[in-house]
Amino acid sequence: MRVSSPRLGRRLVRWSIGVAGVGAILLVFVLAPESQQPDRAATGKPGSGQVVRPVSLRVRPAERRAVDKILDRFIPAGVGQRSMTTAWRLAGPELRAGSTLGQWRKDVSPIPYYPVAGKTFHNWKTLDAGPNFVEFALLVAPRRGSHLGDWALSGRVVRRGSRWLVDRLYTAVTYNLAGALTGPPDLIGGPVSSGAPSNRRGSSTGIGAWIVCAGVIALLIAPAFLLSAFLSDGWPRRRRPTRPLPPLPTSALSRRGLAP
Question: Which of 13, 40, 166, 243 measures 20 to 30 Å from 180, CA to CA?
C-alpha cells in the first residue's frame, strides 16, 4: 500500500531509525557482559585493610561428633523451647549478649522458635570451619500438626576450652508445606538443598527477558516503518531534472497588459 503523504513518509523514516536505535540499545544493555570489579576485602590484596581467610570445609571426625552432640541437645532445648535453661548453658557469648537467663526463661531470646521434630540433628552441612569454630547449615522438620514446612537454620559453634557452645543461630530459609521457598534465600543452591526445591529464578531474570523481547520487537518493527516510508512520497529519491516551462501565448500576455 502506497502512502501518498510526503510528511507521513518522512515521519516513518524518523520513527524507524528511532525504533531501531532503541531496540539495539536494549539488546546491548541486556546481552553485554558485566564487568565485575574484584572485591579487595575478599581477595586480601594490599590496600584493602583486611585479609580474609579462605573458606575451609574440613572438619575432623572428633569435631563432627562434638558438634553433633551439642546440636542434639541445643536444638530441642532452645529452638523447640523445651528447656531454655539448658539452652542458656549451651550458648556461647555472642548468643548470650544483650540478654539474661531470666529473659530466656520468659521466651525472650535471639533463638528462633520452631516446633522441631526428632532427637538427632546430624544432617548439618559445613559452611566454614577453623581450629575452634564450625559454621553450619541445618535443615529441620516440624512436628506433626504444626502446619509448617521445613526450615533451614544457619549457625556457628565455637570451642571454649574443652566445651563446644552454640554461638550463633538464625533462620536462613523457610519452606511451606508444598516445599516451595517462602523465606529469604540466603542459602539457595548451598548445602541445605535436601529435598526442598530451590527457586533460583529471580525477578532480574524475568526483567531481562522482557527487555530482550522488547528489543527484538523493536528491531522487527523498524523494517516495516522503512518499507512504508519507501512506498510513500516522503522517501528521498533522485529528482528528475526540471525542464523550463514554455512561454505563455502572446494573447494571454496582452490580456494581462504584459505584452511588449
Answer: 166
